[in-house]
Design a protein that fits this description.
Order of helices and strands: HHEEHEEEEEEE
Number of strands: 9
Helix content: 25-40%
Structural class: alpha+beta
Length: about 160
């Protein structure tokens, strides 16, 4: 082996083809990796589309609206359209389809005693009610001077 073969182990023609083969292998690897990533993303999206929100069938709660203090509503407040929250229930889980950030949630029993109360945290999409509650309750969501109310049965 002579000294020129040690310094340049490739022949003249092979030396110019080396970057092509390296670049082709790198590009092929990138394309294959992106195909795998695209396939994995599509499988994930398809599985998310078929996954139900909850195990059961949530029941919508029909909410009415009234003023917390009837006199406050009649004295100088503007009469604007109100967006009534869209809320559902599945067993002991309340599902908020529209945001109720910072609202007060109350459950009143048949004697109108407060059985449960909490402030709905920002960004809440579901809230689990305590399991000790059982029976029929009036659900109230209080936002400012408005009270949205409906009825739920917990068993």
């Amino acid at each position: 082996m002579n000294s020129s073969e040690l310094l340049f182990p490739l022949r003249f023609g092979e030396f110019f083809m080396l970057p092509y083969f390296c670049t082709a292998n790198i590009l092929n690897y990138i394309i294959m990796a992106n195909k795998r990533l695209l396939f994995a993303s599509m499988v994930t999206l398809l599985s998310l589309m078929t996954t139900p929100v909850s195990a059961g069938n949530p029941t919508d709660i029909n909410l009415g609206v009234r003023y917390v203090d009837p006199e406050q509503g009649e004295n100088g407040s503007q009469r604007l359209p109100v967006l009534i929250p869209h809320v559902g229930i599945d067993d002991y889980t309340l599902i908020f389809y529209t945001p109720c950030d910072g609202c007060i949630l109350r459950l009143l029993d048949e004697n109108e005693n407060v059985a449960f109360t909490t402030v709905i945290p920002d960004g809440t999409t579901s809230l689990i009610l305590p399991s000790y509650l059982s029976g029929d309750y009036q659900l109230q969501i209080v936002s400012g001077y408005l009270c949205f109310y409906g009825f739920v049965s917990l068993f």
